[in-house]
Amino acid sequence: EDKVVQSPLSLVVHEGDTVTLNCSYEVTNFRSLLWYKQEKKAPTFLFMLTSSGIEKKSGRLSSILDKKELFSILNITATQTGDSAVYLCAVEIYGGATNKLIFGTGTLLAVQP
Amino acid sequence: GAVVSQHPSRVICKSGTSVKIECRSLDFQATTMFWYRQFPKKSLMLMATSNEGSKATYEQGVEKDKFLINHASLTLSTLTVTSAHPEDSSFYICSARDWRTSHYEQYFGPGTRLTVT
Hints:
The complex is a heterodimer of chains A (about 110) and B (about 120). Chain A has about 110 residues and is an all-beta fold. Chain A has strands at about 5, 10-15, 20-25, 30-40, 45-50, 55-60, 60-65, 70-75, 85-95, 100-105, 105-110. In chain A, the strands form two sheets. In chain A, strands 2, 4, 5, 9, 10 and 11 form a six-stranded mixed β-sheet that branches. Chain A has a five-stranded antiparallel β-sheet with strand order 1-3-8-7-6, with no helix packed on it. The model of chain A has no long low-confidence stretch (mean pLDDT about 95). Chain B has about 120 residues and is mostly beta strands. Chain B has strands at about 5, 10-15, 20-25, 30-40, 45-50, 55-60, 65-75, 75-80, 90-95, 105-110, 110-115. The model of chain B has no long low-confidence stretch (mean pLDDT about 90). The chains are: A mainly beta (about 110), B mainly beta (about 120). Chains A and B meet through strand 4, strand 5, strand 9 and strand 10 of A and strand 4 and strand 5 of B.
C-alpha cells in the first residue's frame, strides 16, 4: 500500500526559529514529491521535487529530496507568525490512466510571536 | 494563475437528503479533476479522479453509488453526496489539472464544508 508519513505531527516554535519538517514515503511508481501549505482552506503549492540532491528554494523556504532513502525535508528559516499552517507533503504516482497524489498526514506548525 | 472555485463553500443538510458540490476551473480547461475528502486534523484523502467525458475512477473503499461524480465539461465537475448521513460530514476539496499545459501541478479549490444533521 502506498504510504506517505510526515513528522512531527505538530510543532510550536518562536518567531525567528528555523524548522525542519520531514516526509518519508513508500510508494510504487514514484513520479514526484510536492509540498503544500494549507491555512484555512485549500492547499497552496510550494515545491515540486523530482531529482535527488537538488535543493529548491523560495525565500525563506527550501526543500530537498533523497530518492535513495525515500524522504524529503522542508526547511523554513527565520520563521514568522504568517508561516503558521499545516504543511502537507504529497507524492505523485503513476496511476494508470492518470497520475495521482498521495498525501501525508501533515505537520501543524504554530509560530508564536 | 489558475483559479478553481467551489460552490457552495458551506452547506448544512438533513440526513437522507442529497447534496451537490460544484468545482469549476475559471481560467483554464481542466482535463482532469480530483475530489478529496479531509477530516479534522487529518490529511487529504483522494476519493476519485474524473476525466472530462468519461466515468470517474474511484479509490478503494469509496462508494461510487453514494458519491456521484460528473465531469461533463472541461470547466465543471460535480460531486453529489446521495442520501447523506452524519458520517459524511467533512471538508470536500476538488483540484483540477490541465494536462496540456501543466503535467504536474494540481490547482485546488477552496473546499466545501458539509455538515449533515
